[in-house]
Amino acid sequence: xxxxxxxxxxxxxxxxxxxxxxxxxxxxxxxxxxxxxxxxxxxxxxxxxxxxxxxxxxxxxxxxxxxxxxxxxxxxxxxxxxxxxxxxxxxxxxxxxxxxxxxxxxxxxxxxxxxxxxxxxxxxxxxxxxxxxxxxxxxxxxxxxxxxxxxxxxxxxxxxxxxxxxxxxxxxxxxxxxxxxxxxxxxxxxxxxxxxxxxxxxxxxxxxxxxxxxxxxxxxxxxxxxxxxxxxxxxxxxxxxxxxxxxxxxxxxxxxxxxxxxxxxxxxxxxxxxxxxxxxxxxxxxxxxxxxxxxxxxxxxxxxxxxxxxxxxxxxxxxxx
Length: 321
Ligand code: ADP
Description:
Elements: E1 6-11, H1 19-32, E2 36-40, H2 43-49, E3 52-54, H3 82-94, E4 99-104, H4 106-117, E5 122-126, H5 142-162, E6 165-171, H6 178-187, E7 191-193, H7 201-213, E8 219-224, H8 230-236, E9 244-249, H9 261-279, E10 285-290, E11 293-298, H10 301-304, H11 311-319
Parallel strand pairs: 1-2, 1-4, 4-5, 5-10, 6-8, 6-9, 7-8
Antiparallel strand pairs: 2-3, 10-11
Helix pairs in contact: 1-9, 2-3, 5-6, 6-11
This protein binds adenosine-5'-diphosphate.
């Protein structure tokens, strides 16, 4: 097994709440095992440039509850080239780094897998609010994003019910509907529109008319950004039966804020598990939380295997309407 005296950690791709708690957990686990921890600034771009900072006790003090990532994140086109990756390896060799923890989404995991294939010990931690990564029930940041969206929607509900309004709320999630579905169930939304399911605008208009006729004071549609924009949907809904439609795009507020306790605990567990994994010779794998238990699975599963929405949650939208 390779020696593992100095472990580096980076955050890459889109940021998500909880990444700082994961960074702290990697650093703390290194300290606990008498190993050194190095932070890489700005993801793979910083790796290529050798932009490294020591993650000692002082550097990680007070970061656990903060949103975003203290290591910053960036997208790096250079890292997608063999030359870029060679430069990154050279920088790590020079700095005496023996293993790397990559916190990010499936794009970042492609990069992690490339390093593993070059013989460099690399382990991934899934960090994205989209929850669109196979191999884990939840990604870091998802729970916080759901709660942030929920808080905003509760406020919209108040004004929606006062004015007999139809609110179309667009939530993030890239090409997946995990965030939209969870938010829809948690907010008691009447409808959810996700990329995974076919959409009939005619059927939706019919349901809205029936709902208005039943004197429902307001209606909420949660729309995943991967389907279309809320403005586009509003245009398509020619006849809402009497409701006055309004559009809200929650946008980047969903990516920010202090992580929930769930996300902090998940990040801390995953950070420790990933680091301990490197110490026992794991590489080319990501940490996942499956049925409340941490497991490793091959990095490529993250993008090659489809992750499905929960049929149970989907059925709740209809049952609770
Ligand atoms: P996310 O990790 O959130 O999905 P991106 O898709 O933007 O974010 O990926 C983040 C970074 O990962 C990219 O900027 C790039 O440096 C690296 N990356 C993405 N795809 C590859 C790839 N096929 N090979 C090597 N590195 C990659």
